[in-house]
């Protein structure tokens, strides 16, 4: 058995055309729809946020200090 996997979403019309083409070549075709779970993106800064929890500082303050801007 050989398996053909379509990686991207394909319109129904294109899928029907592919199936029709394969059937004209006497290829037995079976369509299975797989459901893929979305993988949550991991926040790269989530682990370090806790180091600032006891300080009165935010991103705006840090930027002003880094850029040398006086309030």
Q: What does this molecule look like?
A:
This protein is mainly α and 71 residues long. The chain has one domain (12-34, 41-67). 31% of the residues lie in helices and 0% in strands. The chain is built from 2 helices and no strands. The protein has helices at residues 12-24, 59-67. The longest helix has 13 residues, at 12-24. The chain is rod-shaped and about 75 Å long. The model has no long low-confidence stretch (mean pLDDT 83).
List the helices and strands and how they pair.
Elements: H1 12-24, H2 59-67
Task: Give keywords.
2 helices, rod-shaped, single chain, 0% strand, mainly alpha, 71 residues, 31% helix
Oligomer: single chain
Low-confidence stretches are: none
Main sheet attributes: strand count, strand direction, barrel closure: none
Average pLDDT figure: 83
Counting structural domains, the number is 1
Termini distance? Answer: 70 Å
Helix/sheet category: mainly alpha
Number of strands: 0
Shape: rod-shaped
Q: Number of helix segments?
A: 2
Instruction: Give helix % range.
Output: 25-40%
Order of helices and strands: HH
At a glance:
With 71 residues, the protein is mostly helical. It has helices spanning 12-24, 59-67.
């Amino acid at each position: 058995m050989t398996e053909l996997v379509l990686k991207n979403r394909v319109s129904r019309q294109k899928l029907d055309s592919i199936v029709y083409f394969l059937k004209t070549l006497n290829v037995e075709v079976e369509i299975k729809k797989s459901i893929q779970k979305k993988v949550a993106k991991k926040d790269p800064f989530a682990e370090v946020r806790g180091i600032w929890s006891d300080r009165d500082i935010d991103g705006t303050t840090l930027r002003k200090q880094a850029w040398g801007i006086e309030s």
